[in-house]
Write a structure and sequence with these properties.
This protein is an alpha/beta fold. Helix content is 44%, strand content 21%. The strands form 3 sheets. Strands 3, 4, 5, 6, 9, 10 and 11 form a 7-stranded mixed beta sheet that branches. The chain has a two-stranded antiparallel ribbon with strand order 1-2. The protein has a two-stranded parallel ribbon with strand order 7-8. A hairpin with a 2-residue loop joins strand 1 and strand 2. It is rod-shaped and about 105 Å long.
Length: 308
């Protein structure tokens, strides 16, 4: 081959070249790669013909690289680094596709809607239904980095994520005062907000932080009794409501999930937007994209998340 002639160099030739550079010997390079020395000599001869200039100097002490040889070895090292990155990317894609899709969400949504739906044990009255099965998923606490993050946002407020994220509104979750049937049988139902403020209030700590629940936080803080108990999870608030200890603030669909709970039409409902956010590269994975679409369709099809 003449100077400047293109040559199709395979990875074995590149590995041989680097082995010669490391060992200083055609013979040792052949042993390292596991081929005959005659094959090493032939391949390096072809490489020199393609370069159109000597790449090696044969000395009694071994083989040295010429300046051109050192430049070719530097290029070979770059190729092998790219090969390693390619191999890592291939295996990484495989691991990403096989592992469960992680979804972080508020504890109440995970416990009462998402986890039961994903496991196939959601009651027929569940306010959200999936038309297709989710891929294998793992649910994480709200705020934990995940493939898909389900977050709560004050209506009309900006999404608390950078512009790098893809975002999709899933719906509006509304809340009203709620009590157990036992409490109502013993104490009657409040008819007005003023009457509500005189009742024992069961509080969720999140209601004191999210602006959407400011009116409820005011009732709990300024009422005659103040909050008689404050809990940190929706499931704990549900349990303490069932004891009949007082009145709490629960999603309007709570009666669907537990007929022992009665949602009370007192005051205007309070609402918080439910959004899903994810990085574009995450949604390029088939399983994550499928989970994203199943979630979106389920919430968008629910009258409980899209009413009013």
């Amino acid at each position: 081959m003449g100077e400047g002639t293109a040559v199709a160099t395979d990875l074995t030739t590149i590995r041989l070249l680097m082995a010669i550079a490391d060992s200083g010997s055609f013979n040792r390079a052949a042993s390292i790669v596991g081929i005959k020395e005659s094959t090493v000599s032939r391949r390096m001869s072809e490489l020199e013909q393609a370069a159109g200039i000597p790449l090696f100097l044969k000395r009694t002490t071994g083989t040295e690289l010429t300046e051109a040889g050192r430049q070719v070895v530097a290029a070979a090292e770059s190729v092998m680094e790219a090969v390693v990155k390619f191999d890592d990317a291939v295996s990484g894609v495989g691991r990403a596709v096989q592992r469960p899709v992680t979804i972080s969400a508020p504890e109440g949504l995970s416990s009462y809607i998402l986890a039961p739906l994903s496991s196939g044990f959601a009651p027929p009255t569940c306010p959200v239904r999936f038309s297709d099965a989710l891929p294998p998923v793992s649910f994480l606490p709200l705020g934990t980095p995940a493939d898909i993050e389900v977050i709560l946002v004050q209506p009309g407020a900006p999404i608390p994520k950078t512009s790098d994220y893809v975002s999709r509104k899933l719906g509006l979750m509304q809340f009203r005062p709620a009590a157990s049937r036992g409490y109502l049988e013993a104490n009657g139902a409040p008819q007005t907000v003023a009457d509500l403020a005189r009742r024992p209030i069961l509080q969720h700590s999140a209601y004191t932080i999210l602006p959407s629940f400011a009116r409820w936080a005011d009732i709990a803080a300024t009422g005659a009794n103040g909050p008689v108990v404050t809990v940190s999870t929706s499931s704990a608030l549900h349990r303490v409501t069932l004891t009949g200890a007082g009145i709490s603030l629960l999603p309007t669909f709570s009666e669907l999930l537990d007929p022992s709970v009665v949602v009370l039409p007192v005051g205007e409902p309070l609402g918080v937007e439910v959004w899903a956010v994810a990085l574009p590269e995450t949604l390029s994975l088939p399983t994550a994209k499928r989970a994203w679409e199943v979630l979106s369709h389920g919430f968008h099809s629910s009258v409980w998340f899209n009413a009013g």
